[in-house]
Amino acid sequence: MIAKIVLASNNAGKLAELQAMLAPLGVQLVRQSELGVSEAEEPHRTFVENALAKARHAARVSGLPAIADDAGLCVDAFGGLPGVDTAYYATRFGYPKGDDHNVRALLEQMRDVENRRAALVSTLVALRSADDPEPLIAVGRAVGEITREPLGAHGFGFDPVMFIPSFGRTFAQLPPEVKNANSHRGRAARQMLQLMRERWFQGIAS
């Protein structure tokens, strides 16, 4: 029985969200830094390729099953960019890397843009081992519109500027449990939970 899975990320927000979402399986997620795993190279142009590279690296170094998330913001007016470069978006415009700087840079670049439709996309990849020939892959999307200023105090990343029409609020204005249930990562995690039950944890009740 799998009891521990290494998370191929050092992001505390991702760890908290994914640990809560995968709790029904009774597994413990451990950040890769706690196991001495360095960050993997992410040379690819798609979320799934980068997530697979991160999961494979973490599994190989730790010897444990691994799960990796590659996520980003895809803005319609920018042809789907920044995409896989989301984490470093601010650095393209002279700002340091960081969530607040990313939000500032995005709002500046979209100041005169009318089409504000965008999607937050999360791709989760899980491997039983570095050589697992059948990775589990789950993709979640949350579609909304980019606001003209940050709103709300919850979440991280682009949550303060991601307005979700069905709620009439940004992700950062929603209670964490509501956001987690409806976010791109939440949707991907629900798919991953089902895939893990079917493939890795047969017999565990829903």
UniProtKB/TrEMBL annotation:
> Which residues of the sequence carry a binding annotation for substrate?
S9, N10, N11, A12, G13, K14, A71, F156, G157, F158, D159, K179, H184, R185
- Write out the GO cellular component annotations: cytosol
* Residues the entry annotates as binding Mg(2+): E41, D70
The family line of this record is: Belongs to the HAM1 NTPase family.
Q: What class of enzyme is it?
A: hydrolase
**Cofactor (UniProt):** Mg(2+)
Paste the cofactor note: Binds 1 Mg(2+) ion per subunit.
Q: What is this protein called?
A: dITP/XTP pyrophosphatase
